[in-house]
Design goal:
Length: 423
């Protein structure tokens, strides 16, 4: 059987630069998003700490002499390093001794336990985050419109077209950005996603503080997140929703589960943007509820490529989640982060992309074409607020849609299909 050809990832260029800059790099992100496969493209030797056949041997070797784990051609990939947390300090020390770049690549699918003796690695170990695949990486977007060029005001979007229908987007959303799902029919994708989630709930990776883990509690929290995807629902509501069906846990236990699910990169909320254009008390600060990939919510909500029309309002929230995932992939490669804005006067923006240099772009996400005009008017209102306090203008105002055609409205708002966007 022929090996699958490697699918290039947007993070590839960053990894190359980081290996030329740091003695070691850490690639964090959820299981199954492609970290190991990507890291292997740069590594000259590999050790997989969670190898089902060899993990115990590796741990025994590390207990005897941790330098045995580091032994190999550089860059050396140590996959799932957190299985044996002392690897971190051993790598840091080796980087100090050898004083070279590109010695190690670490990958991690969960945040390790706190350790007062673990050095931060600052200046020695560069950190990158890897998301599931965006539509540009999977080849579903034609990548004809660049986010980077939008920030530079070098992109003419007018007349560019997406090849994706709403049916296509429904399949992409339900399939998810999981590389192993590409080319499979939806039924097989759904089975794989369900198995993936069950394994995380059951594994030792999902660690709690002082009591036995209940798999059903973890599952019900993610189900509640799915029901509240892309909304400003607070955690107290999620707690009540989780515990209403014969599940009894304290509030403190609930928050422990939340932290554990975040540490396994399943929950990835969107933080609020506070640009100091109004009193801080007027700006909502509740994180917008998001999962690492929209396919998880689609699975638990029973949304499929065949029935999404019957649940179109819910599908709209899932479409927003898909767009947030892709914007995160593209923005992170530019040194940016994705936020949202919502004040108590009702003014809101679905996504605000903020770069390290202070530039920012406003994004409204609209599944239905009839909502485009409403979003464009909202941008005008928001710009009036910015002008009233002499706040710098955004680099662009974008309405991200499921449509076909890209164009610019008279007020400068860019209408862009998600099937055209890339980094």
């Amino acid at each position: 059987m022929n090996e699958k050809k490697y699918i290039n990832r947007i993070i590839d260029k960053e990894i190359k630069v980081y290996l030329e800059t740091f003695g070691a790099i850490l690639i964090r992100g959820p299981k199954w998003c492609g970290k190991t496969t990507t890291a292997e493209q740069f590594a000259k030797s590999v050790i997989k700490m969670q190898d089902s056949l060899k993990s115990k041997e590796y741990i025994a070797a590390a207990d005897t002499d941790i330098s045995l784990i580091l032994r190999g051609d550089n860059p050396r990939l140590i996959d799932e390093w957190q299985v044996y947390p002392n690897i971190w300090n051993a790598v840091r020390n080796d980087v100090d001794v050898k004083n070279k770049e590109g010695l190690y690549i670490l990958t991690g699918s969960r945040v390790p336990k706190d350790d007062e003796y673990r050095h931060s690695g600052a200046g020695r170990i560069g950190t990158l985050f890897m998301y599931p695949m965006s539509l540009a990486e999977s080849g579903d977007s034609n990548s004809s419109i660049s986010l980077e060029k939008l920030f530079k005001k070098e992109e003419n979007i007018n007349g560019k077209k997406s090849k994706l229908t709403v049916d296509d987007l429904a399949y992409c959303l339900c399939r998810g950005g999981w590389p192993a799902n590409f080319g499979l029919d939806y039924q097989k994708c759904a089975l794989r996603i369900k198995s993936y989630l069950d394994l995380i709930y059951e594994s030792d990776d999902l660690e709690l503080k002082k009591y036995a883990k209940d798999v059903e509690v973890a599952k019900n929290i993610i189900k509640s997140y799915s029901r509240n995807i892309s909304t400003l629902t607070d955690l107290k509501t999620i707690y009540k929703d989780t515990t209403k069906n014969d599940i009894s846990i304290s509030e403190s236990q609930f928050y422990d589960y939340i932290n554990a699910l975040k540490n396994n990169y399943l929950i990835e909320d969107v933080a609020a943007w506070s640009p100091n254009i109004r009193s801080k008390t007027a700006i909502r600060t509740t994180p917008k509820k998001e999962l690492i990939d929209p396919s998880i919510a689609a699975l638990y909500l029973g949304i499929t490529p065949d029935n999404y029309v019957e649940n179109y309002k819910t599908f709209g929230f899932l479409f927003e989640s898909l767009c947030i995932r892709d914007l995160r992939v593209y923005a992170s490669s530019l040194g940016g982060k994705v936020y949202y804005y919502h004040d108590r006067n009702g003014l809101e923006v679905d996504a605000v992309i903020v770069l390290d240099d202070g530039r920012y772009g406003l994004v409204e996400i609209k599944l239905a074409s009839k909502e485009i005009e409403e979003a464009s008017i909202r941008f005008e209102e928001f710009e009036r607020v910015l002008d009233s306090v002499n706040y710098k203008k955004p680099s662009f105002k974008m309405v991200l849609t499921a449509g076909e055609l890209a164009y610019t409205k008279e007020n400068g708002t860019l209408i862009i299909p998600i099937g055209c966007l890339t980094k």
